[in-house]
Amino acid sequence: MSQDETSTSVQPVITEAEILRRIGDTAYNFFSETLNTPSVTGFEMPVQQLVRDYISPHCDSVVTDEHGNVAAALHPNAPKRIMLAGHCDQIGMLISYIDNEGFLYAVTVGGWDIVQLVGQRVKIWTKGGAVSGVLGRKPIHLMDDDDRKKVPKIKDLWIDIGAKDKEEAESLVTVGDPITVELTVMRMRNALLAAAATDDKAGMWVVMEALRRIDKNKLHPEVGVFAVSTVQEEIGLRGAKTSAFGIDPQIGIAVDVTFATDCPTIEKKQNGDVKLGAGPVVSRGPNMSVKLVNAISEIAKSNEIPVQYCAEGRATGTDANSIQVNRAGVATALISIPNRYMHSPVEVISLADIDNAANLLARYCESVKPDTNYIPSV
Ligand SMILES: [Zn+2]
Asked: 89: CA distance to ligand 1 center in Å?
């Protein structure tokens, strides 16, 4: 564990150069490409194509199911099955209405804080390519006192694509087209990175990278590992539900983001002490198998991988929730990447945490034997 290392808020256990060396250019570029590629819930196809292209050479099979989940597997026919799940969908918007002046209105997909959308550059992903726009609002000078006090609603905001009228707008975009904020990756000091939708492209990257890092000589031939880039997590953990049913694993580990509490205003007494760069977060609570969590903790200890712990008193809002109650029940764990400013265009994570999470999962999978089971007992 890493809690005892230093008292600074960001704790790279190793230097940034060393973290980048460990990750390697190919894997880093894959991550950054996924962050620059749209995957609004229900419209994940562009990212899923990247995932298939990237992971195919490193696994025995890649299957896309009817729902859109992409499962890359080692030993897909093995009797013992581990499912690693990271969701690839991102929160966004859909065009709902085009007015006579050519301004667009939108509905949200997933849980946006509307304040975060005001003034954003956006991209509308149409059949004909991306259309650029901005999310506008009345200037503060023209607002009366009541306007200023009001929290904006999505229906009060519009998207301006520069069209001169409805006809021109309709020639470019269609009701139902998905919208994201402008997708960019910004690197920051101490191996931190800011981008929209590190929730949960970070987790998706971790499960694919874990699969790639598994030493096939160490993976038991009767143990199969399925790294799944799940869809539609943001509107109710839906891809994890369908993919877990299809794969029918005995062991399931979801990788998502969690709230880093090392920035202003976040309450530690309820949300725990979670720092960027101090390691992936292992959740404890009823949504997790006690024995599986213990096994993962042992692997972290023996491989000197830093981890942090947090307590979750209920079914989590992650794929771990769906996976645990699949069919007759699955031994489930949740590994989380600390994330500042979740569900904003500038979510911040640490590259050290995703690197450590991928190692933790790879080493864990290599340790599983066909007779490993986590059926609760004392
Ligand atoms: Zn989310």
From this structure: 9
pTM: 0.95
Token pair in block for residue 215:
């030493």
pLDDT per residue as tens digits for the range 286-321: 999 999 999 999 999 999 999 999 999 999 999 999
The whole-angstrom separation of Cα 327 and Cα 370 is 20
Q: What is the pLDDT of residue 44?
A: 98
CB atoms within 10 A of CB 224: 24
- Ligand 1 centroid – CA 160 distance (Å): 26
Please name the helix (run of DSSP H) or strand (run of DSSP E) that holds residue 309, with its range, or none: strand 308-311
| Distance (Å) from CA 199 to ligand 1 centroid | 5
Percent of the chain scoring above 70 in pLDDT: 97
Which residue from 48, 71, 368 is spatially nearest to 248, judged by alpha carbons? 71
Cα–Cα distances in angstroms (integers) from residue 341 to residues 116, 263, 265, in the given order? 10, 9, 11
User: Is the pLDDT confidence value at 101 over 50?
Assistant: yes
What are the structural domains, with CATH classification, of the chain? 16-90+196-367 (3.40.630.10), 93-181 (2.40.30.40)
Helix ranges, the chain (H) = 16-23, 25-35, 45-55, 145-149, 166-172, 198-213, 238-247, 268-271, 290-302, 319-324, 351-367
- Least Cα distance to 319 among 190, 226, 208, 233 occurs for 233
How far is CA 53 from its chain centroid?
Answer: 19
DSSP for 11-37, please give it: --SS-HHHHHHHH-HHHHHHHHHHHTS
Catalytic entry in 16, 18, 66, 233: 233
* Helix-then-strand count for the chain, H and E: 11, 17
The yes-or-no answer on residue 233 being catalytic is: yes
